[in-house]
Amino acid sequence: MNEDDIIKIVCSVEKENKDKYEVKFESLEIIFLNEETIYLNNIKPGLNISLKDLENIINDDDYIVCKNYAFNLVSRFSKTRKELEDKLISKGHNALNIKKVIDLLKGYNLINDESYAKNYIMSKLQKEGKEKISYELSVKGVSKDVIESSFEKINDENESVFTNSLMKIGKKKYLELISKEDDVYKVKEKLYSYLARKGFKWDEIKACVNSILDEVKD
Questions:
Q1: Handedness of CA 182, 183, 184, 189 (dihedral sign)
Q2: Closest C-alpha to 135, from 200, 68, 54
Q3: Which residue in 14, 121, 179, 218 has a CA-CA distance of 20 to 30 Å to 133?
């Protein structure tokens, strides 16, 4: 007997919660399907379903649930492709359905690593340096090429944006340190360490600190 010969007879269809329905078969098996799946397949008591068709229905249901969850997620929070993929994997969705959903969202421009990286950089510039921001984006699954091109685009739009950001962070920390420490050399040392932890390069830090100290002298 092949799969097409095995028939499942629907015994009852009852609403489980807002989106899910409990489908019980005469064989006493129970599955849970999304409301959209129930409607699209006209699933109701007395319906005969072959085992093969049932497998297709369950797979289609997984796609629908995966799609709805993904759309809901990106409508509330901006996500990278990897972040969204990891979320969908953690929910146990079929790998092929995950790919289809991600491709769908990319088509609607609802996930865009280039746009995400640029927005992320701009939101972090007042607190962190390029090295730290780059690392954070790489952890989120953004490729090195996308990260570098995003920094380049921002720099093209405003050549002084990164320098101004570093100076602002440096000055704020300097004033905080100098208010607690009289030894200028210790302040300078702590300022170097602080900016390094924030992800700025050594030559950038040196130029920033020298500029701040020169400004104070004047």
A1: negative
A2: 200
A3: 179
- Nearest CA to 150 among 132, 137, 169? 137
Query: What tokens were used for 158?
Result: 């405003």
- 22: phi then psi, degrees, rounded to nearest 5: -90, 125
* Tens-digit pLDDT profile for residues 11-69: 999 999 888 999 999 989 999 999 999 999 999 999 999 999 999 999 999 999 999 99
- SS3 label, residue 84: helix
Secondary structure E strands in 20-167: 20-25, 30-34, 48-50
The predicted-structure confidence for 120-162, as pLDDT tens digits, reads as follows: 999 999 899 999 999 999 999 999 999 999 999 999 998 899 9
Judge whether residue 2 has pLDDT over 70.
Answer: no
